[in-house]
Amino acid sequence: xxxxxxxxxGGILVSLLLAGCGDxxxxxxxxxxxxxxxxxxxxxDKPAPDAETVAREPSAIYGRYCVNCHGTGMAGAPMVGxxxxxxxxxxxxxxxxxxxxxxxxxxxxxxPPRGTCFDCSDEEIEATVLYMLKESGAK
Length: 139
Ligand code: HEC
Description:
This protein has helices at residues 6-9, 11-21, 38-44, 58-70, 85-95, 97-106, 122-135. By secondary structure, it is mostly helical. The chain has one domain (25-47, 54-135): Cytochrome c-like domain (Cytochrome Bc1 Complex, Chain D, domain 2), CATH 1.10.760.10. Mean pLDDT is 76; it is low at 8-24, 38-44 and 46-51. Residues 61, 65-66, 68-70, 74-78, 91, 95, 100, 103-104, 108-112, 114-117, 125, 128-129, 132 line the site of heme C (HEC).
């Protein structure tokens, strides 16, 4: 499954995602997208039943922890960004979103458990993975 036509992944998501942050061309430039509506939307699809702590913004978690590796490709981390859309789409295609979240929580190879955000809840990690996927424009 290495050959995807861009058209397959374009369309709806891209237009949705780029609507709010068309000028954010990389994970480093997340300031303009900080208020993106994505956070609320993603939380809606899996409400934390008894979250006693207020969930942090996925973009903030990403910016503090994950970007160190996923913004640079350090240690072989899959990079986040629209230009890596196909890579992330393959990840989802081959492993599925729940597996990506599981790996993000438990770690794998160079990926440390919870991406070093040790006080992140599972929900926050999941939301952050979703954020990364959205930043990359993957489905
Ligand atoms: C110390 C560097 C580092 C940090 C910090 C880091 N990652 Fe990773 N991440 C990696 C590496 C390396 C891989 C590739 C792992 C592999 O080869 O299987 C990876 C892979 C992943 C994957 C894909 C797993 C797969 O199946 O390919 C996800 C999702 C992910 N990281 C999420 C996160 C999140 C969310 C954070 C922040 C909370 C984060 N990472 C922080 C290094 C990092």
